[in-house]
Write a structure and sequence with these properties.
Elements lengths: L5 H9 L18 H7 L5 H4 L1 H15 L4 E3 L5 H5 L4 E2 L8 E2 L21 H17 L5 E6 L1 H9 L3 H7 L1 H24 L4 E5 L5 H12 L1 H13 L4 E4 L8 H5 L5 E3 L6 H7 L4 E6 L1 H6 L6 H13 L4 E4 L9 H13 L3
Parallel strand pairs: 1-4, 4-5, 5-6, 6-7, 7-8, 8-9
Antiparallel strand pairs: 2-3
Helix pairs in contact: 2-4, 4-6, 7-9, 8-9, 9-11, 15-16
Length: 342
């Protein structure tokens, strides 16, 4: 069998083609404090400055060993772009959304006609360009963003869950707005060199909203996004937090190429629930990879083998990497992935 470049290998794996071995990548956030210390680019600055963002993303490859580079490191830039209040990041903790901007249908019009060359999302696109210019011929360039359902929740607040149950028209208008934004933002990332997309939609959970609301407020909008990406030959990985086991077949209906599952999901069960999408995951980022700061290489090797034997397409953390995760733990996971042939 041919030996592929990392870029070729991931593209083939995500589209169900034969590969020489498992790609060693992470579709969720990759920044750690040890990387920050080594490369000189750290949060919070690396969330907002394209050069520092690219430098820290590059460390995930040069220092940790991931066979891809990925930005950004959080899922608040989109809400910030529309004026939501943000609790600032620290060196070890990501920023979070603390206030919201849409209370009724009429508020949406205030945010139409947005300029994607402004704000932190523009810095993300600039970072992608820096990384693509340096690594784009060989490495996958993974662009990422919050998904449309979770962005809707960021824009409207916790009332969002009541909204979809009591005011369908309002809910649909918000989803149409956020999905159109996601597509436009993704296309800008692709124009700047992204060749793979990771959509992080943590609150779009079957477990949270049930099958009926998932099919009404998530599936059609994820489908729009996937269709737009596939028209550009860009594969998409979708991550939704929590125990998504019961909703995996619904998640797959949108045409996504890969589904990232977290540590609450049994990997073998996940594989059995999908027909075409590959499953990504799902080492516990806290108890296994961070492990309270202790190094437990043998345990990571054992768990990695167990997850791969369950049939996952890509071995990866079950969610974003904890910032204090030791480098050696991540390198152990990566080396196990590199040994694996399907």
């Amino acid at each position: 069998m041919a030996e592929y470049t990392p870029k070729e290998r991931l593209a083939r794996a995500l589209t169900g083609k034969e590969v020489d071995r498992m790609p060693a990548v992470c579709v969720t956030q990759t920044g750690t404090v040890e990387q920050m210390d080594e490369c000189g680019a750290a949060w919070p600055e690396a969330h907002a400055d394209a050069e520092k963002m690219a430098t820290l993303a590059e460390a995930g490859h040069t220092m940790i060993g991931f066979e891809a580079v990925r930005v950004p490191f959080d899922i608040t830039a989109e809400a910030e772009f529309f004026g939501c209040g943000i609790k600032p990041s620290t060196r070890v903790q990501q920023p979070s959304v603390i206030s919201h901007v849409i209370n009724e249908v009429g508020d949406i019009a205030k945010f139409e006609g947005y300029d994607l060359s402004e704000g932190r999302i523009n810095e993300v696109c600039k970072a992608i360009k820096i990384l693509a210019d340096k690594y784009g011929d060989e490495l996958p360039i993974i662009g990422s963003m919050i998904g449309p359902f979770s962005l809707a929740q960021h824009l409207t607040g916790d009332s969002w869950f009541m909204t979809i149950m009591t005011d369908e028209e309002f809910g649909m208008k918000v989803m149409e707005f956020t999905t159109a934004f996601n597509i436009a933002y993704a296309k800008k990332q692709i124009e700047n060199g992204a060749d793979t997309m990771a959509v992080i939609d943590p609150t779009a959970s079957y477990q949270l909203i049930g099958a009926d609301f998932y099919e009404k407020f998530v599936t059609p909008f994820h489908t729009q996004f996937m269709d737009a990406m596939h028209e550009l030959n860009v594969p998409v990985a979708l991550h939704i937090c929590g125990d998504t086991t019961g909703g995996l077949s619904l998640m797959e209906k949108c045409g996504v190429d890969a589904i990232s599952v977290d540590q609450n999901v049994d990997a073998a069960a996940a594989v059995s629930k999908v027909d075409k999408a590959i499953i990504i995951g799902n080492l516990d980022p806290v108890s296994m990879l961070w492990n309270q700061g202790e190094v437990n290489v043998e345990a990571i090797k054992e768990e990695s083998k167990k997850v791969m034997e369950a049939g996952v397409g890509l071995l990866a953390p079950g969610c974003g990497i904890v910032s204090n995760t030791p480098t050696v733990n991540l390198q152990t996971m990566i080396e196990e992935a590199k040994k694996w042939t399907y």
